[in-house]
Amino acid sequence: MRRRRGRPGLMGTMARTAVIAGTATAVSGGVHNRQAQKAEAQQATAAQQQQAMVDQAATQAAAQVAAQQAVPAAPAPPAGGDDPIAKLKELAELKAQGLLSDDEFAAAKAKLLGL
Predict the structure, then answer these.
(1) Closest CA to 112 of 96, 90, 94, 97
(2) What is the mean pLDDT of the chain?
(3) What is the C-alpha separation between 99 and 91, in angstroms, rounded?
(4) What is the pTM (predicted TM-score) of this model?
């Protein structure tokens, strides 16, 4: 039997092509799988960061609401020092005792209330 020298025959060429195609398919599948894993990892990291930002914003909003609710509901007495209601009661007592006339009481009340 004679051996042929030179180029491979049809079967040799087909076998070589099959090996090359199989190797290329395996390599491209591996690359694709690694890229998919990287993308999933990046998406998971991004989702965790976004959730952390949402949690932080919710915490800040809750702190702001709590701070707004902590503000006293009753108004503080005026900076003048004396409570106007106490002054009015004092004026009413002076009028009841007869120490102030109706006109004096009305003038003092208007002055106290800023009228």
Answers:
(1) 90
(2) 83
(3) 9
(4) 0.40
Cα–Cα distance for residue pair 102/106, rounded to 1 Å: 6
pLDDT (0 to 100) of residue 41: 94
Q: Give, as one character, the DSSP assignment of residue 2.
A: P
What count of residues does the chain have?
Answer: 115
Would you give the end-to-end CA distance of the chain in angstroms?
A: 131
Q: How far is CA 48 from the centre of its chain?
A: 14
**Would you call 17 exposed, middle or buried from its count of C-beta atoms within 10 A (0-12, 13-18, 19+)?**
exposed
Count of CA atoms in the C-beta half-sphere (13 A) of 96:
6
> Could you give the CA distance from residue 96 to residue 99 in angstroms, rounded to a whole number?
8
